[in-house]
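Reminder to self: tokens first, then the designed residues, so the page reads top to bottom the way the pipeline ran.
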């Protein structure tokens, strides 16, 4: 059924089922939809409950508190965040570390699953819980209740946590944090928000009295400032009962403090701010328009304004994007949006990353494009495209409503509680958008734009730049550039007509010459008349989603050493050129409202295709057309090549700015000893070798043929509709001969014990990188044993290096057992810490490695790993991307895909002895690479122009 007809039928069905909105008073409140039940307890606590089956056997719980760092007293700066940390370290029902240990035992991972954050206006606790056992859910509500009013906050736990919080503060240090601190007083214009960064003050974190934390918790963790959100695979009646049982008894404190939202004063005149720092990895300029106090009212009029503003912003961004496709663009990239600064305040911002021309042309382009909108407005053709895109997005949401992740609904209800966003439900919202879009005119969009970025507004122009790439402009220069651009003469936007169709369906489609069926896995394998193989797996995992993937051996390493710079640029250049006769901007217009995309690229050892579409006939056909053109429609555009090279040269100029980037390059150089095929950021000598025609020739050499490709299509489609598309497009791809093997170019990690220290950065920050590697026999079973070892080590990293010793805030180990280009293993650890903690950190990590080698993991540790994997595999097997990626791997590794259904059986057979043996095999203390980042000896300071 064509998508437009389907949308019409869908709209008609909704029209019969839902009350009309055309005659609704725009001042009326939008009612809460039937998908969620919202209530309020007598003590003021708000609750949301919704049954949702995606993912199965899991419920998402949130405790949302309308209390963040802006509410801290002077002696509490940083303590709102510290209270959040301590929520995991002692409460009425869980002693220190008992909570994390319990959650790990039921498959919930600390950090990746259970987590929390503190903002200016809120603190949010996130707890996903498996529902396969009823007591899991009961206990999870006890956890939420403890967070709400049962934290012990004892002095010993507080003192222990100080080191971890200080390590988190250290991790944030750098140019971005320095700029944020310098800019905040200007951005918030003297408001209290400027003085209450959530991470706080280090002297307060070190020295705050325990009573100061308890006072914050007592004052602000109270039911009238809280919401409990429950969404997932749970009976709503049970969820409501648990909310009332666990939170109905909470009481608000007597003489409670007023929860006020500080104001942000209007700026009197346009100002400029310059921040220059030799660790900023690039130069940028941002124009901040006046901050608006705009609480969401939840009315139909409020919603209409949201749609209008969204359409206007979308169209402005499309115009800015077109400017980047010139031979000498005024900026490398640009974007504009209305940004929520706080729960109640918004501001429109337009930003640009700068090229060699600097700030002046970027400011001119930003201001003049906004002036063009103010003076001439948008066009009817632009509005029509924006309507298509908006309606298409809503239609996708409607079709996906039964397979939308619970976390998406949770985020929506959190926004409702914190900011007042309406909750009509996707059915009513689709109907509302359908009725609103035809009433929205170009005049509406123009008025919204003039309100968002008025010509005479007092603005804040911010420049952030790297001192090593040239002098920064002065504030006077920025103001002069902005004033000149704001009053420059502009002409109306020139709207270019574009074709409506990418290509015609091939007149002589290919044929399906063989078909086999795997009933167990739900796979159909097709052989086409041109030799191309296709695997189809229709699913109901996610409505309106179709994924496509293909990999074959090949890749960049097939090319000679002198061609590596061009090979690495080939995929990016081919992608940004557009397709066939259509420039990227034309493609964007042509595909407005369609959900389809395809990329083609060269990996190290593989040629790769990736794509997605909606499940509508038009979307799926568009995806196959894009795929077909990736093989036969590569386009050459000299202007876009010049823009690409300008961007690349600017990136190279700034590549050594960020200490972490310099460290990453040093790690790669130390591991691979400067091997020419080492994967690294391009350097100037690499960029100088990039030639457009040579890069495109290398791309065509691999993608002029589909021979050896097995295309995997997984998702929400009907086989009867899919097969003709496969025959028409995949069956007509060219398939001349080409090499189908990878090439081992001798890229190996250094042997023996290699140690290197890198000095970079002005902050007292260090990073320890440890890499173990060597030859190893590959097998599917051995990949599990190595994976279990890494997971056990990560449990130790958190329990010992973080919680017990306070040496890190965050860090992890990772690794893989690899077959390509030779059978070997790699295990690495990345551990940020302080310069004075490097030696004890390395010693502590090796002590844990020695412990696992000598004694193996505890049974409790192994059980935690298995529990987490069980939960993950249960979830992943209902995701389309899991099947695409694993079927691709199965083909490359020549392993049976049936293993995807039995992997949990293999997990259950893992023993502590297996993990211990893996530790002895892979942690060779005579063969590892250690690279340590240390700060530069001489500290430098950023330059801030007043």
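Designed residues (946 positions):
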């Amino acid at each position: 059924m064509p998508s437009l007809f389907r949308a019409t039928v869908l709209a008609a069905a909704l029209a019969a089922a839902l009350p009309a909105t055309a005659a609704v008073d725009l001042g009326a409140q939008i009612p809460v939809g039937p998908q969620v039940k919202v209530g309020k307890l007598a003590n003021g606590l708000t609750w949301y409950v919704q049954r949702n089956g995606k993912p199965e056997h899991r419920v998402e719980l949130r405790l949302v508190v309308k209390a963040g760092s802006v509410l801290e007293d002077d002696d509490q700066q940083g303590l709102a965040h510290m209270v959040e940390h301590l929520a995991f370290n002692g409460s009425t029902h869980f002693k220190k570390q008992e909570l994390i240990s319990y959650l790990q035992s039921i498959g919930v991972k600390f950090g990746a699953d259970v987590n929390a954050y503190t903002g200016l206006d809120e603190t949010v606790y996130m707890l996903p819980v498996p529902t396969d056992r009823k007591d899991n859910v009961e206990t999870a509500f006890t956890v939420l209740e403890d967070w709400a009013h049962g934290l012990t906050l004892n002095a010993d736990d507080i003192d222990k946590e100080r080191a971890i919080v200080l390590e988190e503060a250290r991790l944030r240090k750098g140019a971005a944090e320095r700029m944020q601190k310098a800019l905040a007083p200007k951005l918030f214009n003297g408001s209290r928000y400027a003085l209450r960064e959530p991470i706080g003050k280090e002297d307060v974190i070190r020295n705050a009295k325990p009573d100061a934390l308890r006072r914050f918790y007592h004052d602000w963790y109270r039911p009238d400032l809280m919401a409990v959100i429950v969404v997932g695979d749970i009976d709503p009646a049970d969820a409501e009962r648990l909310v009332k049982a666990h939170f109905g008894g909470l009481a608000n404190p007597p003489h409670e403090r007023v929860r006020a939202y500080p104001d942000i004063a209007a700026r009197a005149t346009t100002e400029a701010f310059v921040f220059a720092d030799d660790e900023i990895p690039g130069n940028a300029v941002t124009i901040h328009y006046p901050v608006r106090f705009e609480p969401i009212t939840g009315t139909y009029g409020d919603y209409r304004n949201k749609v209008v503003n969204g359409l206007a912003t979308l169209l402005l961004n499309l115009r800015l994007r077109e400017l980047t496709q010139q031979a000498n663009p005024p900026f490398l990239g640009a974007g504009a949006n209305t940004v929520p600064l706080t729960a109640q305040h918004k501001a429109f911002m337009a930003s640009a990353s700068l090229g060699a021309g600097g700030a002046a042309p970027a400011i001119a382009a930003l201001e003049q494009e906004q002036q063009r909108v103010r003076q001439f407005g948008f066009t009817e053709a632009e509005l029509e495209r924006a309507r298509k895109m908006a309606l298409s997005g809503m239609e996708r949401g409607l079709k996906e409503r039964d397979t939308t992740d619970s976390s998406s609904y949770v985020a929506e209800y959190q926004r409702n509680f914190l900011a007042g966003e309406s909750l009509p439900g996707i059915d009513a919202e689709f109907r509302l958008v359908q009725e609103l879009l035809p009433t929205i005119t170009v005049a509406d969009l123009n008025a919204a734009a003039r309100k968002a970025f008025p010509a005479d507004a007092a603005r804040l122009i911010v420049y952030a730049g790297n001192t090593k790439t040239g002098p920064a402009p002065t504030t006077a220069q920025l103001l002069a550039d902005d004033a000149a651009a704001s009053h420059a003469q502009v002409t109306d936007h020139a709207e270019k007509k574009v074709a409506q169709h990418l290509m015609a369906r091939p007149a002589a489609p290919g044929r399906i010459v063989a078909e086999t069926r795997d009933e167990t896995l739900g796979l159909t394998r097709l052989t086409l008349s041109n030799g191309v193989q296709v695997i189809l797996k229709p699913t109901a995992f996610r409505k309106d989603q179709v994924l496509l993937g293909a990999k074959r051996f090949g890749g960049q390493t097939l090319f000679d050493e002198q061609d590596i710079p061009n090979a690495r640029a080939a995929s990016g250049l081919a992608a940004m050129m557009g397709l066939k006769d259509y420039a990227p901007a034309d493609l964007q217009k042509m595909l407005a409202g369609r959900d389809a995309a395809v990329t083609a690229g060269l990996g190290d050892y593989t040629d790769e295709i990736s794509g997605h579409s909606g499940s509508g006939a038009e979307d799926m056909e568009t995806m196959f057309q894009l795929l077909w053109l990736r093989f036969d429609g590569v386009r050459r555009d000299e202007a876009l090549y010049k823009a690409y090279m300008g961007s690349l040269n600017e990136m190279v100029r700034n590549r050594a700015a960020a200490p972490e980037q310099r460290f990453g390059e040093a790690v790669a150089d130390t591991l691979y000893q400067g091997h020419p095929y080492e994967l690294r950021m391009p350097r100037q000598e690499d960029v100088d070798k990039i030639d457009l025609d040579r890069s495109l020739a290398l791309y065509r050499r691999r993608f002029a043929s589909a021979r050896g490709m097995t295309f995997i299509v997984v998702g929400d489609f009907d086989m009867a509709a899919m097969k003709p598309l496969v025959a028409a497009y995949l069956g007509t791809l060219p398939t001349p001969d080409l090499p189908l093997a990878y090439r081992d170019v001798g890229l190996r990690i250094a042997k023996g014990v290699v140690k290197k220290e890198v000095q970079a950065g002005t902050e007292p920050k260090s990073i320890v990188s440890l890499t173990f590697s060597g030859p190893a026999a590959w097998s599917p079973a051995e990949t599990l044993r190595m994976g279990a070892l890494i997971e056990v080590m990560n449990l130790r990293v958190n329990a010992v290096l973080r919680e017990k010793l306070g040496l890190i805030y965050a860090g992890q180990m990772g690794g893989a057992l690899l077959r390509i280009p030779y059978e070997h293993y790699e295990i690495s650890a990345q551990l940020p810490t302080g310069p004075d903690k490097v030696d004890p950190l390395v010693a502590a990590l090796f002590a844990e490695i020695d412990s696992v080698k000598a004694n193996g993991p505890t049974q409790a540790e192994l059980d935690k790993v298995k529990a987490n994997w069980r939960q993950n595999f249960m979830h992943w097997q209902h995701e389309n991307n899991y099947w695409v990626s694993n079927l691709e791997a199965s083909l490359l590794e020549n392993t049976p895909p049936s293993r995807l259904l039995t992997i949990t059986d293999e997990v259950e057979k893992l023993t502590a002895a297996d993990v211990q043996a893996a530790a002895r095999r892979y942690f060779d203390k005579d063969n590892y690479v250690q690279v340590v980042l240390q700060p530069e000896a001489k500290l430098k300071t950023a330059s801030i122009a007043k």
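Residues 753-934 form a domain with the Cytochrome Bc1 Complex; Chain A, domain 1 fold (CATH 3.30.830.10).
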